[in-house]
Amino acid sequence: MKALILIGGLGTRLRPLTCSMPKPLLPIVNRPFLEYQFRLLKKYGVKEVILCVAYMSHEFERVFGDGGRIGMKVRYVHEEDPLGTGGAVKNAEKFIDSTTLILNGDILTDINLKSMVKFHKDNKALATVGLTRVKDPTSFGLVETDKAGRIERFLEKPSWDEVTCNTINAGVYIFEPEVLNYIPRGINYSVERGLFPILLRENAGLYGYTFKGYWMDIGTIEKYLQAHFDMMLCNIDFQLPGKMKQDNLWVGKNLKWGKNIELTGRLICGNNVSIGDSTQMQDNVCLGNGVKIGKGCLITDSVILDNTHIGEGVKLDRVIIGKDCRIEANCILSAKTTLGNGTVITKYSRL
Q: Which of 141, 307, 311, 338 could connect to 290 by a Cys-Cys bridge, CB 3.0–4.6 Å?
């Protein structure tokens, strides 16, 4: 079976991180996010993936090439202008010649795809939408189904008195090739607002598969940070990178570990990381490749991307720092601070 991944968006809600890097290539615990989708697909026997690309498309080809490094065949379909979810699928029509899995490119999940495919085939569905349950359904579009899983209604961002279920569209689909007959060519078109209502109106075999696994839309700064924490706490079924040294420490190659370091949470280090004497790390901390931490720092619930240098006496609390940044000595960065790649913060600054 083939899979199609929709990754043409600008990732505006993740700026400044996406100003110089497309959202699906942002790292989650030191792996490109998209690699987790590849690993999920590969686990369930998918050997060929088509990437629908637009924004900074060359970066995907640079990182993944033809897919040989990850043991899959990767193809690329380019959009000259934004086409939306439906338009992107239509643009890749020549590759969709059999039952095809489709994933939004900002969904972190460990959904059981084998079970979803079985559900799709057992119901002889034309299209199946993966559904997940959420605690607060008022922030999403609800999807109502009957007892057999056939979709009966879509309800966009209801008030609490309108809520009838808590199942939402999880951004994972299975399409038969015939679905593409319903999608117009060459225009910006949405599967959510365009295609699915048409299939529903025509009673064209539209089903919802509700799953209980992990699900997260990483499209905001808060959710991106939470995805790191969930991965580090093993709330999702993916292996952490690096070598496990103890139950709260995973390290890459060439770690330099100073004296009197205090670790009271979980720490993941990439390759060539250096941590200075008397540094304290609390809760969940992820350090990318080539990160250098000076002496006497205090780092809590933070993510620091590749080749960033942190000066002595710096305090970081629930922050995200991009690649190639320089935080000079005795700076204090408080919760929700997010720095884009290449940022320099001069000594004694407070953010």
A: 307
